[in-house]
Design goal:
RNA-binding; eight-stranded mixed sheet; 18 strands; alpha+beta; single chain; 12 helices; 427 residues
Amino acid sequence: MLDIKLIRKHYEEVRRRIATRGEEYAKLVDRVYELDRRKRELQKEVENLRALLNRKSKEYGRLKREGKEDETLKEELAKIKETLKGLEEELKRVEEELNDLLLRIPNLPHPSVPIGEDENDNVEVRRWGEPPKFDFEPKPHWELGERLGILDFERGAKLSGSRFVVKRGLGARLVRALINFMLDLHGERGYVEIYVPHLVKPEILVGTGQLPKFEEDLFKCERDNLYLIPTAEVPLTNLHREEILKEEDLPIYYTAYTPCYRREAGSYGRDIKGLIRLHQFDKVELVKITKPEESYEELEKLVADAERVLQELELPYRVVELCTGDLGFSAAKTYDLEVWMPSYNRYREISSCSNCEDFQARRMKLRYKSKEGKNILCHTLNGSGLAVGRTLAAILENYQQEDGSVVIPKALRPYLGGLEVIKPQGE
RNA sequence: GGAGGGGUGGCCGAGCGGACGAAGGCGCGGCGCUGGAAACGCCGUGUGCCCGAUUUCCGGGCACCGAGGGUUCGAAUCCCUCCCCCUCCGCCA
C-alpha cells in the first residue's frame, strides 16, 4: 500500500511514476486523491461534532447527578447525534472506497527501474557460466524425465488434471535432495529455517499484496475461509505482522521450503508441457525484514544468495532487472534469475528477487522501534532460492547426455548417496 | 464435535456504566543516591488519524481495552453476532 500522505503531497509525481506500470493505475491514483480530500473534509466535521457531543454529555451527566434533569439539553444532544449519524455514514462509505482502492494500487517503482512495457524491455545485468554445447539434439526435460521414469505427467493428470505431475523414484528423491541442499546453503548464510502453515487467512494475503486484486490466482478453501499459499513469501513475510520489532533484531533473514499453489488463471496454453508451470510446485523461499536504509544493499545480497545456488549446481544463468511494466504488484525493484534451458534455447525465470520497501509492511503494520523511540515501517524483501521444479528441469536439460542419461551436479551428490548419473530404466 | 474459561498498553495484570487511555508491577529512558555499581528513591514512557502555528520541538481534537453491531445523555464495563486463544472430553495423523 502506498502512503496516502505521499499521494497527497506529491500527487503529480506519484501519478507519473505509477503510470509507468500502466495508465490504468494512474486513474486509481486520481480517484484516491479525490477521495482522500473528501474524507478529510468529512472527518473534520464529524470530529468537531463528536467533540461537542462529548462536552455536552459530560455536562448533562453532571447536572443529572445534581438532580437537575435538563430536557432541552437532552433534545439538543439527540439533534447533534442525528446530524452526526448521517455524516458518519458518508464518511464510512468514503473511507471504505478509499481503502479498497489504495489496496489495488501497485507499489511505486524505484527510480532506478528501467521504464518499459513488458519482459522485452527488461535489462540484462550479468551472465554466469556458458550454455552447454551438445553434439546431439538435446531433449526437453519432460521427455528426459519420462524416459528416465522419474516424471509421470499422465498419472499427475489422472489424479488432479492438467498442470499436475507425479515424481517417482529418483525424481522424488531429487526434489528432496534439492530442497535439503538449498535450505542447507541458505542456513550457512544466516537464514533461519522456518516451517510454515500452507493455508492462511485472507488478511495474510492482503498483507503481502495477493488480495484483494489477485483472488483469481489463488486456490481457496471456501468452507474454512482459508487460502492455499501461492508462495512461502506470504506466511514468512507475515510472521511479524502487527509487531513492533526491536532495532537490534534487524535485519531478519528467513528461509522456508513449501509447496506453492497457483491457479494460473489466464495462462491457458502457456508452458503446457513439463515442469515450468504447474498448479503445485515446490520452492525454497528467502525473506528479509530490514531497516529502510539497508534494504537495497540487502537486495543485492539476496540476489547473490540465490545466484549461489545456481553456481553451486553449475547451471548457466543470467540476471535480469525487470522493467516497470513487468514488475510485480508489491515490488519496487526486482531482479529475476534466468537459467539456461536448452530445449527452449533461451534463459527462463527460476528466481525472482524483490525489494517491496514498505509497501507490504504498511499493509501488515510491520514496524520497528528506532533508537529515537519512533516506530518505523520495515522494508520487506523476498526471493526464490530457488524454484525446485524448474531447477530440476534445468538440471535434466543441461546435464543430459546423448544416451538420455543425466549427470548429477557434484554439489547434489552427497544428498543422493553419492549417485553420479541417472540412467534410463533397464540399463 | 461436546463442556467450560478467556482475549485490556512492549510484557504481566486490575478495572466490570461517567472522575479510565485505563491502577499496580515488569521492562525501558532520565535524574538522584554511590568512589563506581547493585539495591533504593523521584520523574517520564501506548498507537493511529485529523487540524493549527511550525524544519525538529509543540498545541488542540477524534478514535482505539479481539472484530462488528446495539442499549444509553454517556460503554473497557451491559446486550447481540462473529473471530481467535486456552483447558477438559470425544475423534484422529
